[in-house]
């Protein structure tokens, strides 16, 4: 089963017909005017599609530290209010498995009554949520072109940057130029150091080092710390990148045969924090005998 394109031109009343479409497959309607995409959504036979002229969206990206213009930053608008019509059709289990059944075993009309259609995101669903990109100029200005009506959430393409607070949301209606508020962003920081044995100051190879968010940090939709820990190298050195600026981060270091160590540190926008030496003491076994006083 492969993605297949079907083309149709609406008549004077806006009615169009696709022929030879598989009976249980969702179709993606791409309506173009003057060569530009105006609407993309999933639909079933008989559905109506409303086309509106896209809106230009303008904004400005500014760094949180110093307030300077953030040039060359790519932002993405993703639509968050799309509701698909009909059940989702998943792609084959494996492109390398010719025996994989490409279509569901039952069509929508065969579903038991009262069973809601599946809303699991499919290839069609992802296409319906197509992204719109723009890159800031030297003055930090962003301009998104031909944004269709709907609710969009912004994200930053480069993981080295993060919004100050929750990602911006934009409700787009009409075709007029829509300036939005300034977007304040921060550069993620890093932490470096070296893991040593406390008594001999010899480097510890393969120590696990990870960063935990501050205990008092509020819940955030933006990732604060690296997803995975890192291991110290042959010289005991380590580096962790992608940390959101903030105070009270916890740096946890552990290694086989050593007692774990936890320290706290702060991260400033775009800077590297040097936590210098992380000293681990060899773990000691303590044998305790419990005696009944009777």
Q: Which term fits the overall shape?
A: elongated
* First-to-last CA distance: 78 Å
Total count of helical runs of at least 4 residues = 1
List low-confidence stretches. 83-128
| Rg | 27 Å
Mean pLDDT: 75
Q: Helix content range of the residues, please?
A: under 10%
Please give the largest β-sheet. Answer: 5 strands, mixed
Count of β-strands: 18
Can you offer a commentary on this structure?
It is a single chain. This protein is an all-beta fold and 294 residues long. Helices cover 2% and strands 38% of the residues. It has one helix spanning 123-128; strands spanning 27-33, 36-43, 55-63, 74-79, 131-135, 141-147, 150-156, 161-163, 169-172, 178-179, 183-187, 189-197, 208-212, 230-231, 237-243, 246-254, 261-267, 272-280. It is elongated. 20% of the residues are buried. Residues 83-128 have low confidence and may be disordered.
List the helices and strands and how they pair.
Blueprint: E1 27-33, E2 36-43, E3 55-63, E4 74-79, H1 123-128, E5 131-135, E6 141-147, E7 150-156, E8 161-163, E9 169-172, E10 178-179, E11 183-187, E12 189-197, E13 208-212, E14 230-231, E15 237-243, E16 246-254, E17 261-267, E18 272-280
Structure summarized in a few sentences:
By secondary structure, the chain is mostly beta strands.
Can you give keywords for this protein?
single chain, 294 residues, mainly beta, five-stranded mixed beta sheet, four-stranded antiparallel beta sheet, 1 helix
């Amino acid at each position: 089963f492969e993605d297949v394109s079907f083309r149709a031109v609406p008549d004077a009343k806006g009615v169009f017909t696709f022929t030879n479409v598989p009976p249980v497959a969702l179709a993606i309607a791409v309506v173009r005017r003057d060569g530009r995409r105006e609407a993309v959504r999933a639909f079933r036979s008989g559905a109506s599609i409303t086309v509106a002229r896209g809106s230009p969206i303008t904004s400005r990206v500014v760094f949180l530290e110093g307030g300077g213009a953030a040039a060359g930053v790519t932002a993405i608008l993703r639509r968050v209010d799309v509701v698909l019509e009909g059940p989702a059709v998943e792609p084959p289990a494996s492109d390398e498995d010719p025996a994989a059944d490409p279509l569901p075993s039952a069509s929508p009309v065969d579903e038991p009554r009262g069973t809601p259609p599946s809303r699991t995101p499919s290839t069609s669903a992802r296409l319906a949520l197509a992204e719109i990109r723009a890159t800031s100029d030297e003055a930090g200005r962003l301009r998104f072109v031909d944004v269709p009506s709907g609710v969009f959430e912004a994200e930053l393409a480069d993981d080295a940057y993060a919004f100050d607070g929750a990602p911006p949301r934009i409700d787009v209606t009409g075709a007029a130029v829509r300036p939005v508020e300034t977007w304040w962003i921060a550069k993620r920081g890093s932490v470096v150091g070296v893991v040593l044995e406390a008594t001999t100051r010899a480097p510890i190879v393969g120590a696990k080092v990870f960063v935990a968010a501050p205990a008092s940090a509020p819940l955030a939709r933006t990732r604060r710390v690296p997803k995975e820990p890192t291991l110290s190298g042959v010289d005991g050195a380590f580096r962790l990148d992608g940390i959101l600026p903030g105070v009270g981060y916890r740096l946890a270091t552990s290694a086989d045969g050593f007692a774990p160590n936890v320290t706290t540190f702060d991260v400033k926008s775009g800077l590297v924090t040097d936590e210098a030496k992380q000293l681990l003491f060899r773990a000691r076994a303590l044998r305790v005998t419990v005696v009944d006083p009777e």
